[in-house]
Amino acid sequence: MVTREELKGRWNEVKGRLQEQWGQLTDDDLQQFRGSTNELIGVIQQKTGATQKEIESFLTDVVSQGETVAARVNEVASRYAGEASDYAKENYDRVAAVTSDFSKQLAHSVRSRPAESMVIAFGIGLAAGALCFMGRRR
């Protein structure tokens, strides 16, 4: 039989499935459930005329289906997490190679043309300073 904790943990799902199964159950009827499986079964029996065994079987099926769905969700999430990790690693390696090439080219340019590199760095510093100054004035 379904435990109180299982019902409470999946109450919204169980409540919706109960109302699908037995349309005459209202939210007010189901609010009478105070955590006791026996109370819930009693309310459903009174309202629907279903047998205790039928209700217990239905509740067990709903809870076990929820566990199956949760297990599938975890499985799919785990697979996608692994794929995302592989994708991130591949792209990290690609970006690392590109930036390594760029830094080698930059170092070569600075060594071969030091004066021009200093002028460019000075110009970039002035532009950055002007942007900061303009940002503070607003």
Please describe what this structure looks like.
α5 (52-112) packs across α6 (114-137). The protein contains six helices and no strands. 86% of the residues lie in helices and 0% in strands. It is elongated, with a radius of gyration of 33 Å. The protein has 138 residues and is mainly α.
Question: How is this structure best summarized?
Answer:
With 138 residues, the protein is an all-alpha fold. It has helices spanning 4-9, 11-21, 27-31, 37-48, 52-112, 114-137.
What are the salient characteristics of this protein?
138 residues; mainly alpha; 0% strand; elongated
Set out the fold topology.
Layout: H1 4-9, H2 11-21, H3 27-31, H4 37-48, H5 52-112, H6 114-137
Q: Over the alpha carbons, how many angstroms does the gyration radius reach? A: 33 Å
How many alpha or pi helices? Answer: 6
The share of residues in helices is: over 70%
Coarse morphology: elongated
Strand proportion, as a percent range, falls in under 5%
Helix/strand-derived category reads mainly alpha
Q: Number of DSSP strands?
A: 0
Unreliable stretches: none
| Arithmetic mean of pLDDT | 82
Distance between the termini: 69 Å
The H-and-E topology, N to C, reads as: HHHHHH
Describe the largest sheet.
none
